[in-house]
Amino acid sequence: MIRLDRLELTLPSQAGDVHILRGLDLAIDGGETVSVVGPSGSGKSSMMMVVGGLERPTGGAVTVAGHDLGPMREDALARFRRENVGIVFQDFHLVPTMTALENVAIPLEFAGRRDAFDRAAESLDKVGLGHRLSHYPGQLSGGEQQRTALARAFATGPKILLADEPTGNLDGETGRQVIDLLFDLCRTDGSTLMLITHDPELAARCDRRVQLIDGHITDDGRAPAATHKAATHKAAPQQASTQQANPGTSAARKAG
Ligand SMILES: Nc1ncnc2c1ncn2[C@@H]1O[C@H](COP(=O)(O)OP(=O)(O)OP(=O)(O)O)[C@@H](O)[C@H]1O
Ligand SMILES: [Mg+2]
């Protein structure tokens, strides 16, 4: 579902080029829930932006839901995001001048759904906010705002849900409720989840844990024999038999 091959991201800054992502290899299957952990500044959000088609890689390849994002033009990327990806941010990113219902209806309207407002109301109902449709973000609690953002992210039934520290601005109990909801929605829809978090307990709730340090993946949460390197190295017969011993690996990678 998500595949990174030698992915690089280098951005200019006043102090010179910043090598943010330094050759990432990663394969995530459809329906997997994966946490992304690592120190501040290690490149977690940047990786998520590339996977979501919001930032273009400067090297390597990124394939998401069968789309090779590298060569895609802006309009194609926008369509890709609309059709495949839901995103939740730490600070909610709701439009302050729009009601909860209008916020959730945005992606549905962009997708050309005539029933955008009915679907948005359903989506808000699912996150327990059926009684807050006409409230503006400023009239909602933090937890309610994040649930609205979840309703918006899931409204179009995305294959992939990207969440960047979704509980970072919430107190413990509210955060737990939002996370329970996030996992419920992913399970119901069969969505693939990439969840950035600093919370080890939260990371442990995911199927896999990917660790980034200084722009490198230092642990992709898979057994060594199934890592990208082992699965893609050519030639050596010994390695070929390793591949055969793990038939799921290459098949799963193709599916991703
Ligand atoms: N637009 C940009 N231009 C230049 N450098 C950037 C840009 N965006 C991010 N960076 C740098 O890239 C590095 C990785 O940033 P990123 O936001 O991906 O880290 P992170 O792992 O999400 O950190 P945190 O846990 O603090 O959110 C940081 O050193 C940051 O300063
Ligand atoms: Mg970040």
Automatic annotation (TrEMBL):
Pfam families the record matches: ABC_tran
Alphabetical UniProt keywords: ATP-binding, Nucleotide-binding, Transport
InterPro entries attached to this UniProt entry: AAA+_ATPase (IPR003593), ABC_transporter-like_ATP-bd (IPR003439), ABC_transpr_LolD-like (IPR015854), MacB-like_ATP-bd (IPR017911), P-loop_NTPase (IPR027417)
Domain ABC transporter: 2-239
Residue stretches of biased makeup (Low complexity): 223-240
Keyword ATP-binding: yes
Keyword Nucleotide-binding appears in the UniProt entry: yes
Disordered, as annotated region: 219-256
Protein name: ABC transporter
Species assigned in the record: Rhodovibrio sodomensis
